[in-house]
């Protein structure tokens, strides 16, 4: 069974036509993981056997149900990878951190429950930067994930494992989390589609909290249509997440292209600045010209506070990190190091359990929340955040969608930026504004780059308007 080029839609159609069985599909996924994962390190190696056994057992049940002529879920037999910050009951959940190396999830995240209801199969937990803090998946306690296009390069982060797993055909789709670009940036580096939904569109129940006002679960797919299919299954209100909303995404996988072509696309000057590699900029302009030739209207816009977004993000996010990660104290969670007293336990657990980047952000976050600095830093950052959101609100009065680059550079070499945190953080300069504003964003691979490293372009829309960016993406893919 050839998985290359196989999408969720094609897989579902093949299953209906009985071109293959669910069990045959699962065995093909498992074989590909066994062949490729040792080199790419997209999947965390522990618990792979558990997921394999569960997937095969579920596949056999589905085949019996199909043979009996009974209905199955819309994602029956679809093999997925799940970022290891999303809980699956009875399996390890480490956030790629030593501090949670022995932790086993006691319940399913809401998105997992919804995917189980749709009869999806989980083939393993994917690698990430520790607690989703990073832009290259080099901060994982369990090794670097490599880019399927060139194993000397990073896969992006923090959801690098999910992006690499989809790009290398180990799975048909995956889930990641996006706090400042952690779905869109690795999607761009690995040449797949990555969607960050509106904040509140998808329940965060069962997602390990990193920065609660920014985190959002979203899908990876080989196509925009696949991303839309996965999103339609995980979106919706959840009584266990008070920030989630009930929005009707009923027809999101079947856009009306006549309506889509009436949308006006805005292009902000602030995203085409010094530091944007020429090759990346040229490709984004090529996409713009192609969409213009297909009849889309474009308009220049301004998002004047964009230049403050990265600074704002790296105050708000570490502040929330320092609060959320304080629960890993060696008692309820943690390494449970032997210690003479409580203070020694805290010191041992956190110093030996957390990696360098996590420690860095915890310290920074604790500082900006401390007495005397709270107003000078955190409160000021929140005011700037409101201005960034206001920029988008004003822009969306004149345009329906905003088009920008996803990243300023092509995928970079492993180790190239590890000693320069500022250069690493700049990888997210075009993605963090959407998180700060709470709006949806998607990374879509630029077509026609066969034999070259992938480049992604980003579409952003007003809150709850995922249909617009997915619709334009599907139109671009099909034309």
TrEMBL record:
A GO CC term attached to the entry: glutamyl-tRNA(Gln) amidotransferase complex
Cleavable signal peptide: none
Matches recorded under InterPro entries: Amidase, Amidase_CS, Amidase_dom, AS_sf, GatA
One of the record's GO molecular function terms: transferase activity
Record function comment: Allows the formation of correctly charged Gln-tRNA(Gln) through the transamidation of misacylated Glu-tRNA(Gln) in organisms which lack glutaminyl-tRNA synthetase. The reaction takes place in the presence of glutamine and ATP through an activated gamma-phospho-Glu-tRNA(Gln).
Subunit and partners: Heterotrimer of A, B and C subunits.
Family the entry assigns: Belongs to the amidase family. GatA subfamily.
Protein name (Swiss-Prot/TrEMBL): Glutamyl-tRNA(Gln) amidotransferase subunit A
């Amino acid at each position: 069974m050839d998985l290359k080029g196989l999408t969720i839609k094609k897989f579902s159609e093949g299953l209906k036509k009985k071109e293959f069985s669910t069990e045959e599909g699962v065995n093909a996924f498992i074989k590909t993981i066994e062949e490729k994962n040792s080199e790419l390190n997209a999947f965390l190696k522990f618990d792979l056997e558990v997921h394999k056994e569960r997937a095969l057992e579920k596949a056999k049940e589905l085949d019996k149900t199909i043979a009996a002529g009974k209905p199955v879920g819309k994602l029956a037999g679809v093999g997925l990878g799940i970022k290891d910050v999303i809980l699956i009951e009875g399996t390890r959940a480490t956030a790629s951190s030593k501090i949670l190396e022995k932790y086993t999830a006691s319940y399913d995240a809401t998105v997992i429950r919804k995917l189980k209801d749709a009869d999806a199969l989980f083939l393993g937990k994917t690698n990430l930067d520790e607690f989703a803090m990073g832009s290259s998946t080099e901060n994982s306690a369990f090794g670097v994930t490599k880019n399927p296009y060139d194993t000397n390069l990073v896969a992006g982060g923090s959801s690098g494992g999910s992006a690499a797993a989809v790009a290398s055909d180990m799975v048909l789709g995956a889930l990641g989390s996006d706090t400042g670009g952690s779905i869109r940036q690795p999607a761009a580096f690995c040449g797949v589609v990555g969607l960050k939904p509106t904040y509140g569109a998808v329940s965060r129940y069962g997602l390990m909290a990193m920065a609660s006002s920014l985190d959002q679960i979203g899908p990876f797919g080989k196509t925009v249509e696949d991303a839309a299919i996965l999103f339609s299954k995980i979106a919706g209100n959840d009584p266990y997440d008070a920030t989630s909303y009930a929005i009707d995404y009923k027809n999101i996988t079947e856009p009306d292209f006549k309506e889509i072509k009436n949308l006006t696309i805005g292009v902000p000057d602030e995203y085409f600045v010094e530091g944007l590699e020429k090759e990346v900029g040229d490709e984004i302009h090529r996409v713009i010209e192609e969409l213009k030739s297909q009849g889309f209207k474009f308009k220049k816009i301004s998002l004047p506070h964009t230049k403050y977004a990265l600074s704002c993000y790296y105050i708000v996010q570490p502040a929330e990190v320092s609060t959320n990660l304080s629960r890993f104290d060696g008692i309820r969670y943690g390494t449970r190091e032997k210690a003479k007293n409580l203070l020694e336990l805290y010191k041992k657990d956190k110093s030996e359990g957390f990696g360098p980047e996590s420690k860095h952000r915890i310290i920074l976050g604790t500082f900006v929340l401390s007495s005397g600095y709270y107003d000078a830093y955190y409160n000021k950052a929140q005011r700037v955040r409101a201005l960034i959101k206001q920029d988008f609100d004003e822009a969306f009065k004149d345009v329906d969608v905003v088009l920008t680059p996803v990243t300023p550079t092509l995928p970079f070499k492993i180790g190239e930026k590890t000693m320069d945190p500022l250069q690493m953080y700049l990888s997210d300069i075009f993605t963090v504004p959407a998180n700060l504003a709470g709006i949806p964003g998607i990374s879509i691979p630029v077509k026609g780059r066969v034999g070259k490293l992938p480049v992604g372009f980003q579409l952003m829309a007003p809150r709850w308007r995922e249909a617009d960016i997915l619709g334009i993406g599907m139109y671009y893919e099909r034309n």
